[in-house]
Design goal:
The chain is an alpha/beta fold. The protein has helices spanning 18-31, 44-48, 51-54, 75-84, 101-110, 123-137, 199-214, 254-273, 305-309, 326-329, 336-352, 362-371, 385-391, 403-422, and strands at residues 10-14, 36-40, 59-65, 91-97, 114-117, 157-166, 169-176, 181-189, 222-227, 231-237, 276-277, 286-288, 294-296, 303-304.
């Protein structure tokens, strides 16, 4: 038998259903003339056991039934993780039965190049997926250094501008044809191999799950979450007013600073009730709406409160130095009072136009958070000092206990200020 040349695609179809297997073979043979195509009714685990044969192929199309096991422990996904661990192995396209959005995420995370439900299986879907897999295997899809390459194109979205670009993650403003408005897209640019080894993918999935589960205006509204052959992305609410940091070039009016503090505290109360601590609260993560409310974003390093309670000392430091609590700076376990400390830093910055603790190095800033006294406000802002002291206490036990107490304290301050303003001036007696 004549051996195929290296330019001919080498494709294996692994599918127990004879009807599906026959259809896929027909699509590929007609779509890729001269290709070397084989098939088997076995399983991906069987193929994994034949190492030399496995690496002779460019692409595998593999049937995967999630009807009885839609978890990451599905036997096909276990075999897939082993295949994806070696970059010399072929790309794997799953042909799935009884899948869901969750199983799609698990499949891509395990290392699948693409995921096609059998209910949607057709010639165009198969040929397009195989073509992209072949291009990726030859290094034409992703940048050689694994970074972002080329312009992002996502179906249904008209990209307007890029807001940020770091490692293999980019953030864009795009016009959504479905919603007829602008949205924000947080995009993870995929490379070949298992996404189980990609921390950015884990953070993206974690952020999606947190926002989706909270489903409150305290956080950005989620419109869509997709995993494609080239990208994983979240589509979420766009804030035309931007973030709080854009307003802090100088001090805000005290009344506005207090209003923002109350809104932020209400948002924190919602996420804390949902069992989430943000751990990176800062002006850039507080988005402003036209109606005066705020939404918290960027939950990439947030922790579930249950996980935090089980944490031990010596955990890695995570957060933004200017807004980190003393316990974060020391790598100690954190809880919701960590977010309240950050809120205190933000309140001081809103009132004065300055950060309370600054230094030439990160270490110097963190040392001040741990040891420096709570800064004093100028006399005209003395009304707010007691609240600031309760938020910026070095010992978490000395802070207000939760975000609800912050809103209650602010309500009392506002009520007292209103009553003071209503007190009539004493009458002036003439003569």
């Amino acid at each position: 038998m004549e051996q195929p040349t290296k330019t001919e695609p080498r494709i294996l179809v692994v599918e127990p259903d004879a009807k599906v297997r026959s259809a896929v073979l027909r699509y590929i043979v007609k779509g890729f003339e001269g290709s070397s195509v084989q098939s088997t009714s076995g399983t991906l685990e069987d193929v994994l056991g034949e190492h030399s044969r496995l690496q002779s192929f460019d692409v595998l199309l593999v049937g995967c039934d999630f009807a009885t096991d839609g978890t990451a422990d599905n036997p096909t996904l276990r075999a897939l993780r082993a295949i994806a661990a070696d970059p010399n192995n072929p790309a794997v396209i799953l042909l799935t039965t009884k899948g869901s959005e969750y199983s799609a995420v698990q499949a891509i995370k395990a290392g699948a190049f693409d995921y096609i439900p059998k209910a949607l299986l057709g010639r165009e879907q198969v040929l397009s997926a195989v073509q992209r897999a072949l291009l990726a295997r030859r290094g034409s899809v992703s940048g050689r250094d694994g970074g972002i390459a080329g312009m992002v194109r996502l179906f249904g979205y008209d990209m307007r501008r890029c807001l940020a670009n770091r490692e293999n993650v980019s953030v864009h403003v795009a016009f959504s044809a479905e919603r007829s408005k602008e949205v924000v897209l947080k995009v993870l640019h995929r490379g070949r191999g298992s996404l189980s080894r990609d921390d950015n993918f884990d953070r993206l999935v974690t952020e999606f799950k947190l926002l989706y589960d909270i489903a409150d205006r305290a956080v950005a509204e989620i419109y869509d979450f997709r995993v494609t052959t080239q990208y994983s992305y979240i589509a979420m609410e766009y804030f035309s007013l931007g973030h709080l940091g854009t307003q802090l070039a100088q001090a805000l009016a005290p009344e506005l600073a207090l209003k923002h503090t109350a809104e932020i505290a209400r948002a924190l109360s919602i996420i804390h009730t949902a069992g989430v601590v943000h751990r990176d609260l800062k002006p850039g993560n507080i988005m402003l709406r036209d109606d005066g409310t705020v939404a918290l974003i960027d939950f990439g390093i947030s922790h579930q409160i249950e996980d935090i309670l089980n944490a031990t000392a010596g955990q890695p430091i995570a957060g933004t130095p200017y807004y980190m609590s003393p316990e974060q700076a020391r790598g100690l376990p954190t809880d919701e009072r960590t977010d309240l400390y950050a809120l205190g830093v933000i309140l001081y910055q809103m009132l004065t136009g300055e950060k309370p603790f600054t230094g030439e190095t990160t270490e110097a800033i963190l040392e001040l958070h741990c040891t420096a006294a709570v800064p004093r406000l100028p006399p005209q802002l003395a009304t707010y000092q007691a609240l600031l002291d309760k938020l910026l206490a070095k010992d978490a036990a000395q802070r207000l206990a939760n975000a609800r107490e912050v809103t209650e304290t602010i309500d009392l301050m506002t009520s007292a200020a209103q009553k003071a303003a209503e007190v009539p001036l004493p009458a002036v007696v003439v003569g």
